[in-house]
Amino acid sequence: MSEYRRFQPGPYDEMVAAFRWDVPDRYNIAADVVDKHDPDQLAMLWEDWQGNERRLTFADIRDMLNRIANVLGELGVVRGDRVAVLLPSLPETAAAFIAVYRMGAILLSLSQLYGDDGISHRLRDSEAKVLVTDGNNRARVEGMREDIRPLERILVLNENGSLVDGDVDLDAAMSGASTDFPMVDTAADDPAQLYYSSGTTGQAKGILHAHRYLLAHNEFELCHDVRADEIFHSTGEWAWIAGIVPGLLGPWRFGVPVAVLQRQGAYDPQQTFYVLEKYRVGNMFTTPTALRAMTEVKDPGAQYNVKLRIWCSAGEPLNPEVISWFKSQFGIPVFDYYGLTESYPICGNYPTVEIRPGSMGKPLPGWEMSLLDPVSEEPVPDGEAGEICLKARSNRTTLWGTGTGRRTPRRCSVASGSTRKTWPAATPTATSGTRVAPTTSSSRPATASVRSRLSRRSSNCPRSWKPPRSRHPIPNGGMS
User: Fold this and answer.
1) How many other CB atoms are found less than 10 A from the CB of residue 373?
2) 243 vs 91, 126, 435, 459, 480, CA distance in Å?
3) DSSP state of 216
4) φ, ψ for residue 109, nearest 5 deg
5) Which residues have CB under 8 Å from 80's CB, separation 6+?
6) CA distance 290 to 160
7) Does some domain include residue 344?
């Protein structure tokens, strides 16, 4: 069991009664996921599609990230600057992420799967000062330079002859950099991470999270039930919140080592089973899309010696047939949970609570949730669909200033963007009138609450809601 855990799965009412938010005034993600751990403790087991392997301790990660932080500092990166990272799933990628947090700068993580227009939009909209990429992706950026003029420097890892005038060879720069870099003193409310939404209504919107957003990911204690003597694996790419958090930050916060596979090309479910077997993975996160792809593999339970204890999924509805298939193959259920780019998992299933196939479970402790009528904004009767709504304290940081002409983050009236998910209220997915007792006994006093409406169909905030001013927010970045 991890020494850093505060809560354990148990009967649902007991989990809710015991839960308390604990948000320090001063907090930096880098200190929480790397610095506090035994330097000799295993952090990552990495392998690529060609079979190359690396084994890294927290000391290895710390030295690497400090070298990168020193390189960035020499280039003039300071608190609040946006640093974009466009890299595959390498140990250096993880180190670059955490170096940015350590400096008090803001990380913009980019996917190699984005089209050139998507990358250009995010670099331009975020006004990224520096881009960290590799030789394979460097040429993509050159054609964008007129559109991304705020970008001052490009650092290239594994450059392989791809450098352009003014570029920095990151490998060479790191080799001469110090392995010491002082942690920038950040408030828990200071911005740390800029994710971009999928852009289903117009261009992708920037969602700015504070350092404290990691503290709100209580699914690792209550759904995943993470243990320091297990290996954790996630199939998500490190560009989205469902990639970085379960792939790195969530497990590392509790000292849990991660197994990482650097893929080439499209997702291959057999590679996942290979990793699970080879590294004896005990805890896993993946998406329903990946799970459905795995069901196409013939009898994997007989082909692979998989020893998973916990298997969780989020990102879209998980159909009961997939859950049943996995139970028949591996003898364990899949724990589905629900969250947003703007937030964290706010509803989930637990190892200690009965699972109803097709349900996304019950509200995670710490959240008060209800199903409301979209017109009257009153609780819906049993058997009717409603919007999932939260009692939420006000936000400090929300939408990045897309389309506003502003150069700074702007506040939305209640939610960062808005996302709605409607379900028949009487189905196991969500029960009408569900309530979670407010867990307002914390290291910070409770504040007035409002209901925040979540809607995938509009990026506008509800016109009637005005948040109260709050000096004591619960952990959030974009939503809560």
Assistant:
1) 14
2) 14, 20, 30, 23, 21
3) G
4) -90, 130
5) 104, 105, 106, 191
6) 32
7) yes
Total residue length of the chain: 480
147, 120 in Cβ contact below 8 A?
yes
The whole-model pTM stands at 0.84
Cα 86 from Cα 113, distance rounded (Å): 10
**Are the C-beta atoms of residues 371 and 377 closer than 8 Å to each other?**
no
Q: CA 99 to CA 61: how far, in whole Å? A: 10
Torsion, Cα 82 86 91 96, to 10 degrees, reads -10
Tokens of 142: 């050159």
Sheet holding 106-109, edge to edge: 168-169, 153-157, 130-134, 82-85, 106-109, 191-196, 206-210
Tokens in use for 449?
């609450």
* pLDDT for the residue numbered 313: 94
Instruction: Tell me, yes or no, whether 309 lies in a domain.
Output: yes
Give the span between the Cα atoms of 372 and 3, in whole angstroms: 40
Amino acid at 95: A
User: What is the tens place of the pLDDT at every residue in 109-129?
Assistant: 999 989 899 999 999 999 999
pLDDT in tens, 244-280: 999 999 999 999 999 999 998 889 999 999 999 999 9
pLDDT in tens, 49-96: 999 999 999 999 999 999 999 999 999 999 999 999 999 999 999 999
User: For residue 79, what are the domain limits?
Assistant: 12-366
pLDDT in tens, 206-254: 999 999 999 999 999 999 999 999 999 999 889 989 999 999 999 999 9
Q: What's the number of domains the chain is made of?
A: 1
Query: What is the domain-level CATH number for residue 221?
Result: 3.40.50.12780
- 176, part of any domain: yes
Residue 7 placed within a domain: no
